[in-house]
Design a protein that fits this description.
Elements: E1 19-27, H1 33-46, E2 50-56, E3 59-67, H2 68-79, E4 90-94, H3 100-105, E5 111-115, E6 138-140, H4 142-153, H5 161-164, E7 168-172, H6 176-179, E8 182-184, E9 190-192, H7 202-208, H8 210-213, E10 217-221, H9 226-236, E11 245-248, H10 251-258, E12 265-270, E13 277-279, H11 316-321, H12 328-332, E14 363-365, E15 371-373, E16 380-382, E17 384-389, H13 396-402, H14 404-409, E18 414-419, E19 423-425, E20 428-429, E21 450-452, E22 468-469, H15 486-500, E23 505-509, H16 511-527, E24 534-538, E25 557-562, H17 573-580, E26 588-593, H18 605-614
Parallel strand pairs: 2-5, 6-11, 7-9, 7-10, 10-11, 17-18, 17-23, 20-22, 23-24, 24-25, 25-26
Antiparallel strand pairs: 1-3, 1-4, 2-3, 8-12, 12-13, 14-18, 15-16, 19-21
Helix pairs in contact: 15-16
InterPro entries: AB_hydrolase_fold (IPR029058), FSH-like_dom (IPR005645), Rhodanese-like_dom (IPR001763), Rhodanese-like_dom_sf (IPR036873), Rhodanese_C (IPR022111), TrhO (IPR020936), TRHO_N (IPR040503)
Organism: Panicum virgatum (Blackwell switchgrass)
Pfam family, one: FSH1
């Protein structure tokens, strides 16, 4: 490392027109998170930056991509704000994204700026207050961290004195799929790998392994440092015997910059951008194929566990012969690959005769007879079956008609099945004074029945009443008053799925998207995980029903909504972005379009939707 460089800065490698990636975070009190997010939105777009920015009352976390000159301008702008004093801006030049599918999944094809409740969610239990970030473990520079490891390994007499007092244990704060391709390996030093699927599982692991940590000098590390901040504070909150906690400042990224040969780090550093991983000068490979066990450490194929959707390593040979994967954690829990069947197509009737609670409601599907071939043409697969939930004051038939263009574009890969919501609504019209009468008249025609998944507390329905005059003009925020009816809708959907058959995914539009998210959250609470393989949430919003508990919904998700420039006048961009933020972020994709309150079917948006669905074929 350049000895003259100030802490928190990273030289741009002289690549003015080269592509680069910038990572930084800052824990600090943010007085107005919404205003800061708006600034990020405008400033980053002006520099043509892409990536993710999360702004919360406790600080900022950013991963951005763009031209090096633009990123350096961004660093200069943020450094002028006292809020970012002392921030470690980690900037590295790299190749341009070449795999658009990977870049899109990592959020590196567009800019996503969101306001969040907290930068990282450590505790999934909403009753547990997060630890005080001021209690985080002491920062060790890459050189100090290395020196401690050298001393314990017996290869150096130099070390940080306060660490040396106790037995040293190293704790990896990352997810298991990250540790499988790279980790610290130090002779004579115990390194603990929690083997967790997601960060919010770490507190439980710490609670279960307190005796391995008590009285030790604990050295923690992660990719860039942010996860160690909260995790080290959590360990120190346990009191006596847990005071000596230290964290690698700047994470593995800074360590590999300081020690290009890898030092004590073996393998590659998993990163959450289009690069996927970054290695050292060492040419060693830690990862192995899940199926055959051969050395392999490339996640670019984005293979995932069929049950929990965690990334798994599968070599190209095994990808050609196997389509269903079970990660090592699910295998430990006795789960097996899902059986793929080429069962015969069945015709879905448009009415159900059994008293299942949704008699006379409409169930309809688009053409279901086509099949999709395997990539090796050896056998055929059924299309993806997707349950579609309409918006407020719509019905299955209406939604099917409005999505006919979408169904046509997806006809070779998906079967869309539509169902009415359980809450029937009165016919409502906006009174208009007639030219010959002072009394406003309702429309003459009787429309098709309309339904809702969630309703306002004072909603009433009278089957004898044809029309009802609206009390007030249309209010785009009316969904905030729709707080009732979830329990009935949840039971209704459970019965419908049992009656119709299982689905690969769920798609919801507007209120249907809000209901789909609630349904998946409740399934996760009840069954441990949603029963769908994926979810698609279009122009959605977080329904004002219950509490999402702080734990992300563990479901691969695609969120499609307007880009915030006023095109969708019914659901604000920030509401749809907030819904996306409730899902597990490493398998969450966002498609922001420049159209209205619709599901877009033109390029490039339809191509992004197809790319997402192709993962599950």
């Amino acid at each position: 490392m350049d000895a003259t460089r100030q802490p928190g800065q990273r030289r741009g490698d002289g690549g003015g027109d080269r592509y680069g990636v910038l990572l930084y975070y800052k824990y600090a009190e943010v007085p107005n998170a919404a205003a800061l997010a708006a600034f990020y939105e405008e400033h980053c777009r002006s520099l043509a930056l892409v990536g993710r920015v999360r702004v919360g009352p406790d600080g900022v976390n950013a991963t951005l991509g763009g031209r090096m000159t633009a990123l350096e301008k961004h660093i200069a702008e943020m450094s002028s704000n006292t809020l970012f004093e002392g921030t470690d801006f980690k900037l590295a030049s790299c190749e341009d994204p070449v795999d658009e599918r990977v870049a899109r999944e990592c959020g590196f094809t567009s800019l996503s700026v969101r306001v969040v409740k907290e930068l990282v969610t450590l505790c999934s239990n909403p009753t547990s207050a997060p630890p005080e970030i001021s209690s985080a473990g002491r920062h060790l520079s890459a050189a100090e961290f290395h020196s401690v490891l050298q001393n314990v390994a017996g290869t150096s007499l130099d070390a940080v004195a306060s660490v040396e007092k106790n037995e040293v244990v190293v704790v990896d704060a990352r997810n298991v799929y990250e540790t499988r391709i790279g980790k610290f390996n130090v002779p004579n030093v115990e390194t603990l790998d929690p083997e967790i699927r997601q960060y919010s599982d770490l507190p439980s692991w710490i609670d279960e392994h307190t005796e391995k940590l008590r009285g030790k000098s604990i050295l923690m590390y992660c990719t860039g440092g942010i996860r160690c901040e909260m995790a080290s504070a959590y360990i120190r909150s346990k009191g006596e015997g847990f005071e000596n906690v230290f964290q690698l400042y700047g994470g593995i990224q800074r360590y590999l910059e300081q020690f290009p040969d890898g030092g004590y780090f073996e393998g590659k550093n998993f990163v959450f951008d289009h690069r996927i991983s970054v290695g050292s000068l060492k040419e060693n490979m830690l990862g192995t194929c899940l199926i055959c066990g051969t050395s392999y450490d490339d996640y670019s194929s984005r293979c995932r566990c069929s049950h929990c959707r965690m990334l798994v390593l599968v070599c190209p040979t095994c990808q050609d012969s196997t389509k269903e994967y079970v990660c090592e954690l699910c295998q430990k829990n006795g789960k097996e690959p899902c059986q793929i069947s080429t069962r015969q197509d069945c015709k879905i009737q448009t009415g159900l005769s059994e008293p299942s609670g949704f008699e006379n409601k409409s169930i309809s599907s688009h053409n279901v007879t086509s099949k999709v071939p395997w990539s090796n043409d050896s056998e055929q697969l059924k299309k993806l079956r997707i349950l579609c939930l309409h918006g407020f004051r719509q019905n299955a038939s209406n939604f099917k008609g409005r999505t006919s263009a979408l169904a046509k574009k997806l006809k070779h890969i998906a079967e869309l099945i539509f169902i009415d919501a359980p809450h029937e609504l009165s016919f409502v019209y906006q009174p208009i004074q007639g030219c010959c009468s002072d009394k406003p008249s309702p429309p003459a025609a009787i429309p098709k029945r309309k339904f809702a998944w969630l309703i306002a507390p004072n909603t009433s329905f009278n089957a004898e009443q044809d029309w009802k005059a609206a009390d007030v003009p249309f209010d785009p925020l009316q969904y905030q008053q729709q707080t009732k009816g979830f329990e009935e809708s949840y039971t209704y959907l459970e019965n419908a799925i049992s009656e119709i058959g299982n689905f690969d995914g769920i798609l919801g539009f507007s209120q249907g998207a809000a209901m789909a998210a609630l349904f998946c959250r409740q399934q996760q609470k009840t069954c441990g995980a949603p029963k769908f393989r994926f979810g698609m949430f279009c122009s959605g919003y977080p329904a004002p029903v219950g509490d999402f508990d702080g734990e992300p919904i563990k479901l691969p998700s695609l969120h499609c909504f307007g880009n915030g420039e006023g095109h969708d006048r019914q659901i604000a961009n920030r509401a749809s972005a907030e819904l996306a933020g409730l899902f597990q972020q490493d398998c969450c994709s966002v498609v922001e379009h420049d159209m209205g309150h619709i599901i877009p079917t033109r390029s490039p948006y339809i191509d992004q939707i197809k790319d997402f669905l192709s993962i599950f074929l």
